[in-house]
Design a protein that fits this description.
alpha/beta; 3 domains; elongated; PNTB-like; membrane
């Protein structure tokens, strides 16, 4: 082993160590930001190591390393600008785009390495197997993530989309990709066979995600993230790069665990989700209750809500996608701080799949500097609802639908926030329209529930103004 290879190995190992430390720190909200920075530092070391040693090994081929430097600079610039300017509601779309880029890049690496070996009579299985798997998984991730991003952005309908024969075509695409991949292992390097794997996998990725409904969006985003990790790990095996292998394995393992946890939180199997999601997409909502059926609904004003909150001892806030869509995280944090300063015990009840991706609500509230100890996860929150004076639901629907406890509907068996266990419930929502699952919510007509129809941002601001009046009166 040369000194160059030894130094590269040490640097890659250092980068991998930072990946592991950073990932471990991301387990807790209080250390997640620092963990993210540590992981980013590890990736910076890995990228710079690759560029520097590529220059050393280039032997004067300045075009190759110049392309590496330019590509890294362009990618870093886009990533920084896009991440800093993206709205919180658009983070799931951005994550899907990053998944697509990661999977596509990994597939491209394997494809290029395969082309470089077309002149040899045979490929060792330690290279041909990772290449075939990388191109297949990376292509599925690329096309599937683009469709997922389109659904989340509204470019493609969030409703389950299918057509006659779609399942058959998907099975055929999978069989073709698998068959061509096996043939690649048995014959000399054959570019047309790899192209067949590529095209068939791209088709499979599209047809796998199109039938996924809006309610299953968090799970499919997490699953595609796991696929990205697997593709990157396979690319590492293909080109014998330790950093890619370790980083890809970490992402794949973490994504798989998170996917299983999300599926469990919805009481569904990953297989059932892939075979076809339930629910509707993003139905357009009206800004008020005028066109809604308000039979048995108790409508509240901002003053009504303020009185309940100002004189409560324990308040639980259950945020949902409506809060994220209205960018109302700062307003809810201001209201909570006002109540806390007044002596009210305020906590947030966080459902695992509230929002559009895993951890969406935690990130959203952290951006508004909500104390981490105020964020209660599902089990903690449900225990707290039994002693809760007022539960304030902001833009959430399916995750607090009591019908989940009954069989025979779209959310049956899904673990929910037990909002209806609180002494009094206030639901801040734009209208009576159903959530992603497309079913009505009996919580809205419960005698102890009051509906305050408003945009989350404006509604919370109005409630805060009213609370100030009662506190200072």
């Amino acid at each position: 082993m040369s000194i160059v290879e030894f130094l590269a190995g040490i640097l890659y190992l250092s980068a991998a160590t930072l990946f592991v430390i950073g990932l471990h720190m991301m387990r807790a909200p209080s250390t997640a930001r620092q963990g993210n920075l540590i992981s980013a530092g590890g990736m910076t070391i890995a990228v710079l190591t690759t560029i520097v040693f590529a220059v050393i090994d280039s032997g004067g081929d300045w075009i190759g390393w110049a392309a590496l430097i330019v590509g890294a600079a362009l990618g870093a610039t886009y990533g920084i600008v896009r991440a800093r300017t993206v709205k919180m509601t658009a983070i799931p779309q951005l994550v899907s785009i990053f998944n697509a880029v990661g999977g596509g890049a990994a597939a491209a690496v394997a494809f290029a390495d395969f082309v470089a070996h077309l002149s040899v009579t045979s490929l060792d299985l330690t290279m041909s197997i990772p290449i075939a798997l990388d191109v297949a998984i990376g292509s599925i991730t690329f096309s599937g993530s683009l469709i997922a991003a389109g659904k989340l952005q509204g470019i493609i309908s969030g409703k389950p989309l299918t057509f006659p024969g779609a399942r058959v075509i998907n099975v055929i695409a999978a069989v073709i990709a698998l068959g061509a991949g096996v043939l690649l292992l048995l014959v000399p390097p054959n570019l047309p066979l790899l192209l067949v794997v590529l095209v068939a996998s791209l088709i499979f990725g599209v047809l796998m995600v199109l039938p996924i409904g809006g309610a299953d969006a968090p799970v499919i985003v997490s699953l595609l993230n796991a696929f990205t990790g697997l593709a990157v790990a396979m690319a590492g095996f293909a080109i014998d790069n330790q950093a890619l292998i370790i980083a890809g394995a970490l992402v794949g393992a973490a994504g798989t665990i998170l996917t299983l946890q999300m599926a469990k939180a919805m009481n569904r199997s990953v297989g059932a989700i892939i075979l076809g999601g339930f629910g509707t997409g993003d139905a357009k909502t009206t800004s008020g209750a005028a066109s809604q059926d308000l039979t048995n609904v108790r409508v509240l004003t901002a003053d009504d809500v303020a009185i309940q909150l100002a004189y409560a001892q324990h308040v639980l806030i259950a945020p949902g996608y409506g809060l994220a869509a209205a960018q109302a995280q700062h307003e809810v944090a201001e209201l909570a701080k006002l109540l806390t300063d007044h002596g009210v015990d305020v906590k947030y009840a966080i459902h695992p799949v509230a929002g559009r991706m895993p951890g969406h609500m935690n990130v959203l509230l952290a951006e508004a500097n909500v104390p981490y100890d105020q964020m209660l996860q599902l089990d903690e929150a449900n225990a707290a609802f039994d002693n809760c004076d007022v539960a304030l639901v902001v833009g959430a629907n399916d995750v607090c639908n009591p019908d989940a406890r009954k069989p025979g509907n779209a959310v049956s068996g899904m673990p929910i926030l037990n909002v209806d266990h609180a002494k009094s419930v206030v639901v801040l929502k734009r209208s009576m329209r159903p959530g992603y699952a497309g079913i009505s919510n009996p919580l809205f007509t419960d005698p102890k529930t009051g509906m305050f129809f408003a945009d989350a941002k404006q509604g919370l601001a109005d409630i805060t103004t009213a609370v100030k009046q009662y506190i200072t009166a």
